[in-house]
Amino acid sequence: MKTALGLNGPNLNLLGTREPAVYGSQTLDDVQALCAHACNAHGFALDFRQTNHEGTLVDWLHEAGQLQAAGTLAGVVLNAGAYTHTSVALHDAIKGTGITLIELHISNVHAREAFRHHSYISPAAKAVMAGFGVNGYALAIAGLAGI
Ligand code: CA2
Prior knowledge:
- The chain is built from five helices and five strands, in the order βααβαβαββα.
- By secondary structure, the chain is an alpha/beta fold.
- Strand 3 (73-79), helix 4 (88-97) and strand 4 form a beta-alpha-beta unit.
- The two termini are 16 Å apart.
- Bound molecules: ligand CA2.
- Ligand CA2 binds at residues 11-12, 14-15, 17-19, 23, 79, 81-82, 84, 105-107, 109, 116.
């Protein structure tokens, strides 16, 4: 069975506690349950994580690269949070590992502040998903199943 890796960056542990108009009212635990359901439907195992640290995300992307090399990675769904807009290190890690990765945003970043319009992740990603709320995670997992 292949593994889908759900990686979440800074402040996403706050989901469901503030800014419900932007991010909805579901918690990250709810999102994990939603992803587990989607993975079950598509025959994937789920590995779901969150960190507030950029280097930890880089380490996890390298881990994903090892799974990909072993043929056991379905793909990565990455919500890099604000690091999306700042991190050359994440860009390089995705490029360097050659992993299949979907960039995900809960909100439609293009309808928000200008500083959220640029992504260092997009040029290295297979696909980009934004604006579907937390249900976008399930849609992204379905997308991995179709690749
Ligand atoms: O829309 C998304 O998923 C974002 O990746 C979320 C990031 C933001 O910096 C990106 O521009 C778009 C922020 C995640 C912080 O999430 C919070 C949730 C509830 C309360 C406070 C922050």
